[in-house]
Amino acid sequence: MPKDNPPLPMELDEAPRAGVVPRFLSWLFATTPRQSRGAIHGTHEELFRMRGEIAVLRATMEAVRAEVGRRDIATLEELLRTGNRREIEALIRDRTQTVPLPDGSVLCRVLGRFKMFVDAADVGIAPHLLLDGYWQYWVTEFVCRNVARGETAYDVGAIYGYWSLVLADLVGSEGRVVALEANPWLHWLLRRNVHVNGLGRIITTERVAAAEAPHATMNVPALLVGPQNGRFASAFTTEASRTHCTAPAKALQDIEPGSVDFLRIGATAQPDRVVAGLGGLLDRSPGLRIMLDFDANLCAEAPALLEALSARYPLRFVDGDSLAKPCTVEDVLARRRVTTLYLSRIEPR
């Protein structure tokens, strides 16, 4: 029996009662003077007590199964309905599995249901996906509460597509997700992750960098390059101890003509240039919600970027309790130089 489900205490003035089966047999065969098949009232009372004890036994067995057994996770909505963060994280960890592959990737199970290929040499996000089965669960929970079915979402700097898969699960077949990743090695893994999960009809991938304007080619920093003798090795060059690759670039306002409901901008993107290319998209998307992985060290002008964003949207950050809380430009620069910002005129859930 689980430690947090102790047996119900007995009344002090009652003697210990026999088990359900012995009492039923005793009643059936009338083995004691007090019991009689004609005592209808006593029979109903005894059966009522038996039903109650059987219900307690069933509940105890369910608790034991939950404690020692495995439970499949069907959708992210089921995770939210559970409501207990520790229990959810334990369930996800219980279903993690990893399979190293000869192409320099590792296949793992994420959020209890998605299959994902990640870079075996990655020491950033991959260890969390491999061992825990999730990435920044407090942010994941926040996203799940604030994205609805049928919406259109962009994932900029998608890396392996963790957020792309989460968003696809939330918007469903009625919605759309556009995932942008400029790194050719990561874009290849991203495409594999989309198709191995059967989400090619919902998620569209592009190997493109987000910038302030279109560029035929643009240098993009590259932290992950895959195996040295891999298929994309020639796509990367190193100068002054920094590795980069080239990719075409687009402004986000030029990706598609319609409006967008949810926009995630990852830390691997260059936030100043990404935000500079939002203009028309902001104008035609009044209900837009932006989740920005803000790192002041990656911004050319972090104060100017924050001032421009705060002039248009209330400035909030996603705290460890999965709630978006107000903050100021000074607070972000002084105390939260690396944080997840939430920008929208719509109150977060």
From TrEMBL:
It comes from the Bacteria. SUPFAM superfamilies: S-adenosyl-L-methionine-dependent methyltransferases. InterPro entries: FkbM_mtfrase (IPR006342), SAM-dependent_MTases_sf (IPR029063). It holds the Pfam family PCMT. Gene3D superfamilies: Vaccinia Virus protein VP39. This is FkbM family methyltransferase. It comes from Neoroseomonas lacus.
